[in-house]
Amino acid sequence: MQIEIDAHSGFCFGVDYAIQLAEENLRQGDELYCLGSIVHNDEERKRLEKWGLKTINQQQFIELKNKKVLLRAHGEAPETYRIAAQNGLELVDATCPIVLRLQAKVQEASVAALQKDGQIVIFGKKNHAEVIGLKGHAAKNAIVISSDNDLKQIDYTRPISIFSQTTQGLQAYISIVEKIKKNVLAANGKIKFVSVTDSVCRQVSNREEELHKFALKHDVVLFVAGKESSNGKQLFTVCKRANSRTFFMSDISELPLENIASASSIGICGATSTPKWQMTDVLNFLIKKTIDIF
Ligand code: SF4
User: Fold this and answer.
1) In this structure, are residues 74 and 36 in contact, taking their beta carbons and an 8 Å threshold?
2) 168 lines ligand 1 (CB under 6 A)
3) What confidence score (pLDDT) does residue 45 get?
């Protein structure tokens, strides 16, 4: 029986930085709030909450006064900074630099689009914090596209600037861009006034190939991630496509013991929001259980 943790799985640098900032502040004994879950991983959030981190929602943030609040890697809309200034909140801004650059590009494109009756199209999940933040950085001319069904919202006769949520799959983004271009061609007879920004984060998309190879190497793959993790769903699909005996799990209680009993090799991997310690916990649990199971 061979058990291996994927060396490429675990926090991306954006999430790692946010966790480090939270730990530094908590270590100093500071009272620290976090707007939304610091990472889409319940186990990691609970670990930091045990240290004292207080997770708050948007409404609680609006009502909070004179406290220290961490902004997570996903980034925020300008409105969040305005509320913080108004309420005397001290911000610990852990917005990922990649997201910051994307916000600036969306803002710039949005201002330019206003001059020429253009539209900003963001490919991503409507309720995802990063997408809400990006939409906030655009003027009122942003449309969020989550699937082909949303394509009808675009006016193909007007200029279009297209961006993607950083954790979307590269192939899915390429595919939606092709569909938009096809519709522009059908509406105008030629491709005109379409600008595409490649904003898929390579911290996620570069892992796809590695995970594909990793999933092929093992009899069974255990993919560890939070249920809310966008890139977790994305990367799980990559593993499942490569190896049908891939199982999604968020904690030890979900370990599919009956499905792994006959495996000669098990691979453990995860998302950019999966802490290394969680994958190591699964490994240690399996080592302890080995005698019983195998
Ligand atoms: S996935 Fe990429 S953009 Fe998102 S937090 Fe991680 S490094 Fe930053």
Assistant:
1) yes
2) no
3) 96
228 is catalytic: no
Domains delineated in the chain: 2-9+205-293 (3.40.1010.20), 13-96 (3.40.50.11270), 98-165+167-196 (3.40.1010.20)
Tokens 């069904």 -> residue:
149
pLDDT of residue 294: 44
User: How far does the centroid of ligand 1 lie from the alpha carbon of residue 16, in Å?
Assistant: 10
Q: Which of 249, 53, 29, 74 is nearest to 166 (CA)?
A: 74
Among 44, 76, 130, 208, the one annotated catalytic: 130
CA 272 to ligand 1 center in whole angstroms: 8
Query: DSSP secondary-structure letter at 117?
Result: T
Residue 177, token pair as written in the block: 């861009």
pLDDT per residue over 207-230, tens digit each? 999 999 999 999 999 999 999 888
